[in-house]
Amino acid sequence: MDSKKKLTTSWGAPVGDNQNSITAGSRGPTLIQDVHLLEKLAHFNRERVPERVVHAKGAGAHGYFEVTNDVSKYTKADFLSKVGKRTPMFARFSTVAGENGSADSVRDPRGFALKFYTEEGNYDLVGNNTPVFFIRDAIKFPDFIHTQKRHPKTHLKNPNAVWDFWSLSPESLHQVTILMSDRGIPATFRHMHGFGSHTFKWVNQDGDGVWIKYHIKTQQGIKNLTEEVGTKIAGENPDYHTEDLFNAIEKGDYPEWKVYVQIMPLEDADTYKWDPFDVTKVWSQKDYPLIEVGKMVLDRNPENYFAEVEQATFSPGALVPGIDVSPDKMLQGRLFAYADAHRYRVGANHNALPINRPKNEVNTYQRDGQMRFDDNGGGSSYYEPNSLGGPEETEEAKQAAYPVSGVAESVGYDHNDHYTQAGDLYRLMDEGERERTVQNIVGAMMPVESDDIKLRQIQHFYKADPEFGEKVAKGLGLSVPQEAR
User: Fold this and answer.
1) For the chain, is the Cβ count within 10 Å smaller at the N or the C terminus?
2) Which family does the record assign (predicted)?
């Protein structure tokens, strides 16, 4: 018996000839009736979904999350309910600014996106390898990302735009300092921490809440690359981080992280020295120490990169009962922007794809849309409320209420000290790291054509720490402006 698999069309019909088009005679022309040719070419034209605007280049793996400490008094989230409970998960790591074919080992933050397939639906934790971000209001995000992309005329990266924006956005200073430090180029995805970055809210069975921040600590140890080594690897093996993650898991060297939270009582938000919802700031671990939650282990590579890593979609709005959002203005914008990007890039039914599909039963009144590949709800009720026994809301799954007040207007945060934490970070570095950080900044700013932009940015470094500003200015052949002194 012939055990060969038959080549078929996408609708399952066997293909008679996959080497020659149907033509009018040996010379042609080609006939439009060759539906296999038409399908093959049409599908080929559509093989690349639009790449992500940010985080385009990435790698991913499957694994599990296991609770190692009882946190049930803080949250009713089922997957965190008891010690020893395991939840399957998928992780995607990425650079931020580069295109899909860009190098892994560039100086850039790293995306750290986690999808937990819980029994109450998928929970996505969409963070970075840094605890803060460049901006704190989502209205600035498109402008910021434009500065990281290519100039519309030259189609080249544009340091003028990068540093012009940063110098006019002093809230970016903390993240810029991290980016230009030794932490700016992780050695591998396995050797970096992850952070939820934003403030979230945990709510327990009694409806009591706390503010929390996630810290995901690598158990492989922190390792980074110097600028010189990162540049060398980028030229020799631009897929270095992707390859490292795949090979480590393939040989059984499963990377592991411990997950912690900082917990802040709700009332502290009104009195803490930093606005706890400002994503450009951290909470002191002396004030709110780390509390262990569990561990995550990645132990299985994807079988197909496109189906799993490329089509994986994450949104900070993918929440489960017991985990809510905060008034963080950057997070509030991401709740819309991420899911909307997936609806555009992958399609309205992206959550029905195998990599994104929840493990539990899904019951919605959403119908139709491109790429609807299940039974589309069949003939069941398709509106709500209805008297036909359709799915109904679960009142206890509502997000916990919190009071709001004030005038509806375009207004910023009350706290505008963008220098103390950046300066504290600089002073925490040893002398060698301070020197390397300054060298990285000088190298990145050298191509900037405008001295006004350089001087404006130097003032920010100086206000964070006078030595910081003086050394950057000296490296650029400039002097710290008198007004900064």
Assistant:
1) N
2) Belongs to the catalase family.
| Single residue among 360, 381, 400 that ends a domain in this structure | 360
Of 328, 360, 392, which marks where a domain is finished?
360
Domain that holds residue 232: 58-151+183-360
Can you tell me the distance from the alpha carbon of 384 to that of 363, in angstroms, rounded to the nearest whole number?
12
Q: Which of 36, 62, 122, 128 is catalytic?
A: 128
**Is residue 93 classed as helix, strand or coil in its secondary structure?**
strand
100 is catalytic: no
Query: Tell me: the pLDDT tens digits for 8-65?
Result: 877 777 888 888 888 888 877 888 888 778 877 777 778 778 899 999 999 999 999 9
d(CA 461, CA 448) in angstroms, rounded, equals: 17
pLDDT (tens digit per residue) in 89-122: 999 999 999 999 999 999 999 999 999 999 999 9
One-letter amino acid of 180: M
Do 131 and 254 lie in one domain? The reply is yes
**Residue labelled with tokens 């069975």:** 205
Q: Which of 322, 315, 302, 381 is nearest to 351 (CA)?
A: 315
Q: What's the chain's Rg over C-alpha atoms? A: 25
Structural domain count, the chain: 2
Q: Is the dihedral of CA 203, 204, 209, 213 positive or negative?
A: negative
In the block, residue with structure tokens 């039963």 = 361
Q: pTM for this structure?
A: 0.93
Are the CB atoms for 123 and 77 separated by under 8 Å?
A: yes
Residue 305 maps to a domain: yes
Residue type, position 154, single letter: T
Residues 6+ away with beta carbon under 8 Å from 2? none
